[in-house]
Amino acid sequence: MITLILGGARSGKSAVAESLARQSSGPVTYVATGVVGDDADFAARVAEHRARRPAAWDTLEVGAQLAEALGRVRGTVLVDSLGTWLAATRDFAVDVDALLVALEAHAGDAIVVTDEVGLGVHPETEVGRAFRDALGRLNQAVAARADAVWLVVAGCVLVVKGAR
To answer: Angle at the Cα of 26 (from 24 to 31), degrees rounded to 5?
Structure first.
């Protein structure tokens, strides 16, 4: 089963995804697409996420190599997040088809976190608009294949597609 969890910044989407993954009876692998560099704010967010995760979960930091990594994990996989995966690629050029094939081929549940950027302020820069548009298209492609799509707003879940 593929569950896509969307939400804005600090909406609680990752916590909702982690709660769903905790319900798994088998192994859980947290697939982190963000790579911590010199950004102190991002490093603090990553540390917060790490502190919430159960010790029994495996963590795989993949950066831009998301589709390839999905083929190496078993059980429930929690991907956090498509936005950082997209941002890690030149010109926001990700292989959406490879991601969809990998998600559908995964034998366990796949929980995918992504940013909903289409509800916010219109980006002022060309690169901001390009990112918003690319992530919007990516989110639509994954949502079309997902069994369930949830929107998280202020920590509350709105079921958009499928069941909760």
So the answer is: 75
| Pair 45, 52: CB distance under 8 Å | no
Angle 102-106-111 from CA coordinates, rounded to 5°: 90
Kindly list the structural domains of the chain, giving each domain's residue range(s) and its CATH number in brackets, ordered by start.
2-161 (3.40.50.300)
Residue 153: is its pLDDT beyond 80? yes
Q: Is the pLDDT of residue 10 over 90?
A: no
Sign, CA dihedral 92-97-101-103, equals positive
* pLDDT tens digits, one per residue of 84-126: 999 989 999 999 999 999 999 999 999 999 999 888 788 999 9
Which residue among the candidates 12, 15, 49, 60 is catalytic per the annotation? 49
Helix (H) or strand (E) run with residue 78 in it: strand 76-80
Catalytic-residue membership of 49: yes
Through-space distance between the first and last CA atoms of the chain, rounded to whole angstroms? 12
